[in-house]
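tool_call: predict_structure(chain=1)
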Amino acid sequence: CVVCADALPEVALIPCGHRCMCPACSKRCLAAPYNRRRCPICRQKVSGNGGIGQLLVWHQMHLLLGTIDGS
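tool_result:
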């Protein structure tokens, strides 16, 4: 985990997809007000988290809806 450096980074952040936080640090991130939730890698606002499978489903859904660019 890039936040605590104690646990494995098992959680992927949505929408950026960086798998950089442990479950405990991710939970603390999502407990913060929305305007303060940022990925520690790219600083993009975080709207949620999940495993890689959840991230892939989210990404495919938004590609189909045309709400994100697939390039």
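agent: The two ends are 28 Å apart (CA to CA). Proceeding to next step.
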